[in-house]
Amino acid sequence: MTPPLWPKISAVLPPDENHFPLHFGDKVEASVVEMLRRSRRQLYSGTPAAGLLLNAQIVLDVSWEKLNTGTWRHVDKEWRRVYSYGCLFKVCALCAEEPSEDDLLQAVHTCDMGLLMGAAIMDDRLQVLVGILQKEVKKDTRNEEEPEHTEAKRLKLTLANVPPIGEDRAVPRVKCPSLESFQKNYLVPTKAVILEGTIDHWPALNQHPWSLEYLRSVAGCRTVPVEVGSRYTDEEWSQTLMTLNEFIDRYILKRSDICPDGATPVCGYLAQHQLFEQIPELKDDIRLPDYCCLGDGDEEDVTVNAWFGPAGTVSPLHQDPQHNFLAQVVGCKYIRLYSPQDSDKLYPHPSQLLHNTSQVEVENPDTKRFPEFSKAPYQDCVLRPGDVLFIPVQHWHYVRSLEQSFSVSFWWS
Length: 413
Fold this sequence. Notes:
Helix content is 31%, strand content 18%. It is α+β, with helices and mostly antiparallel strands and 413 residues long.
């Protein structure tokens, strides 16, 4: 009997081998291209799934080595495409016969790896496949009555350690300014401002409030990159991949039953990730701020990133080469801003890699090493759900989560 999933998978694939494109530049070895062609033949000839899975894994192993040789910026896009094709063939092999729940989860993970590490192929076919697979994955079953988890299921307001904010340095707030007013009073003179009432229409704030339950239901089985460590300037800082469910359990809920020897986990942060391109269901819950139209680029030129983590996550004092709208969806953050005119007092790292990041620990500065830091004027604020902070280009900013938090940033110019 034909398994019910395969017709859905095969329906989004090319109808036959002749319509399945496999074209690569000279940088991809002929032996690898031949392995891809062999996988294509297996896909359409009814070869047992085990044979297709073996060849797909060989393609993935070879291309993975290419992706991890040298710096990411120097990885040739052709090898990223090879990796994506390997992911596609592996997904097909996992789903060609009656897949178990583990097979389905592995197929979803494989799609995500292609979306994260590969390049778009065949009209972004991996995105289509993962949408089909997500519907097949059984909902996560947890003991909802466990008190330690029930309290934390919603990202709730438990502010702590909020620095006093004087009126003279508080970032100003304005409610729904017109495009003309925003441009004249804030964009052109590059002044920070908190915009109120501009994202109240987001489904993420009303129709589909972003609770832990909702995030699990939409994206719990999806694989995401997580920063592990207090801040990216620390020596022990690292990055890893895990499902969103695993991230929530380990770093948001801090479940003792999943930590080795009951140890308290270090800080984990889903930071600066284009989550909404990876998971369009979440993209439907947000909207591009209207003020982005005042920039020189098109809508496609706006970079949208997710920032999801527990209380205590920190982005060290740094500056970005574009304007930023930081929209707060869940929880609160303390933010401090410095003008680029005071960069000499902020002690940027001397290394080229971290030249846009200050060496100073903002809330506990070493006054002997950095004596001029205390002379730099600044503005600060607490960003609350529904607020959007405009951070002008090159303005230094330090961010600390006061509680479990989800923010969305829009970089534009």
